[in-house]
Amino acid sequence: MVLIVVIICVVLVIFVLKYVFGSSGPNPFEKDTREPVKKMVHDRKEKNKVLKQGFLASKVPENLDAVIIGSGIGGLGLAVLMAKVGKKVLVLEQHDRSGGCCHTFTEKGFEFDVGIHYIGDLQEHKPFRCMLDNMTDGQLQWEPLDNPYDQVVLGPPENRRRYPIYSGRTRFPEELKKCFPGEEKAIDDYIKLCKKVGRGIWLLPMLKICPAFLAKFLVYTGLAKRLSYFFKMASRSLTEVVNELTENEDLRAVFTYIYGTYGNMPKDTSFSMHSLLVTHYLNGAWYPKGGASEIAYHMIPIIKKAGGAVLVRAPVNRILFNDAKEAYGVSVMKGQEEIHIHAPMVISNAGIFNTYEKLLPKELQAMPAIQQQLGMMKNGEGGLSIFLGLEGTKEDLGLKADNYWIFTENNFDELTETYLNGKREESAKSVPLLFVASPSAKDSTWEERSPGKSTLSLVSFAKYEWFEEWKDDKVNNRAPEYKELKQIFIDSILEVLMDIFPKITRDKIEYIDAGTPITNTHYIGAPKGEIYGADHGIARFSPELNATVRPQTPLKNLYLTGQDVFLCGFAGALAGALTCGSVILNRNLHLDAISLAKKIKYAKRKED
Q: What DSSP element (H or E) covers 185?
């Protein structure tokens, strides 16, 4: 009996070592492909030649290695990884420009980012930075935000408290302790716990890369929770953990304020998910120089160089399968005509719900394995965005390269629950959470491109059901009642904004509009207007779900990439691309990115 147990353990160790450290396929990070930075292109027409290549059957490359549905970072990132090892990939985007939530749009001369507000973990020579540098051939540049990079504002005007959030592994806790004397132990314990949980993230991609039987073995023997503190803590809510650390209500709020970056109130949030965000920004925050469209702009040429293409206005209406239930291509609607595109591999960055519920034939949707995955996930909360174009420079308007998180009080769970469960007109008058950022203030090229102008992006949450009755109206000509509801949101949010930023007055506003959950459905294909993909509640982080929802779907030749296969946000979707790429290329790309960073760091030391 003992011999059998020893044999099983040895076999398990071999498999774990193989899938954590073993590699046999081609390595997209084998060489440092960074080139000297070229002059930045500001001409919109020139950039659109790359970002807005419209779909035509004649533009589809021959002998494709893969088709990717969706040009968000999870799709584009994977296409770049495959292109770097010589794969010819076609990326299809339903919108009129590529980039997904990394795209920008222009109204009345103002350029707005829709999804990129700040990215962490981008220090020189760190794996995430080196990976992104190589995925853009060194052309994508990043600018650090101010320090403090976040400002947490709590309470009504007559009792408003402000807490600056600083980056830096020592400065972050030091500044918090200045704000909360007597709470030194709580602050130290919180940061220590976040770091410990964050270090356990290594097992999450492994559960998705290793063979299914090994993943299930790790889950059902309980080894996943023993091997990774991330999974051990995943079932505990953020509220529960934080409430054990301190009785101070404002400190609890400051510990949890960033819940808006994944879309779940603290009592429904896994502490493990939250820990990743805290550690992600611990060393600072950055913004892409030239705006978010620079990301796609510098990735697409790499895909094209390998013989692939990124085509927009290319709505995929179904995935093609043969009688053996194997994917062999996609169908694209061009007007009333269906155009079939064949490839040995189909990869969806359209999200698990769009992929399984809209793109599969009914008989394949009904497969128990597909239904099992759908049953484990649910839609995230809808997003609400307000875009302001302002007359005046950042100095004129009191804007900086930072973000504001504004809350009506410190009882986040109660406030958010009351808001989301309220009647829409009443909830619109009292939005409890507001994220405010100025893309123009973060970008050093802005003044050159748009002198004397500024932009603001304001983000919160709103229920899809509040707007659902107008979802079938024409996007630019919805019913008056829809516009009236939007205006209630805009007016109440503007009142808060102008109180916090007194230099911003109504006469400075040259453009303003709101994007609701049904706006998100139209432009980024979010089924329920969500901005973070599938819900990121506590259930999302169970070992069982992460061993089940993997890049390889139950259908041969069909894969998932992006947010829904890993985590939300830019870094999470890109990690989804790395994980999917690991499965497709048969090597651990997460480890390859770390190895590349070590090589670059070593080479830099030799130079110095």
A: helix 184-199
- Residue 482, H or E segment: helix 480-500
Q: Which two tokens stand for residue 316?
A: 């995929």
CA atoms of 311 and 52, how far apart (whole Å): 7
The amino acid at residue 19 is: Y
Q: List phi, psi (to 5°) of 53.
A: -75, 105
Sequence-distant (≥ 6) Cβ neighbours of residue 43 within 8 angstroms: none
SS3 587: strand
Locate 396 and state its tokens. Answer: 């004129």
Burial readout 41-58 (b: 16 or more C-beta within 10 A, e: otherwise) = eeeeeebeebbbbebeee
Element (H, E) at 51: helix 44-51
Q: pLDDT tens, 201-231?
A: 999 999 999 999 999 999 999 999 999 999 9
3-state secondary structure of 410: coil
| CA–CA dist 559, 73 (Å, integer) | 16
Single out the residue of 4, 65, 30 nearest to residue 589, CA to CA.
Answer: 30
- The pTM of the full predicted model, rounded to 2 decimals, is 0.95
User: Could you report the per-residue pLDDT of 9-58, keeping only the tens digit for each?
Assistant: 545 555 554 555 556 799 999 999 999 999 999 999 999 999 999 999 99
Structure tokens at 306: 């390998």
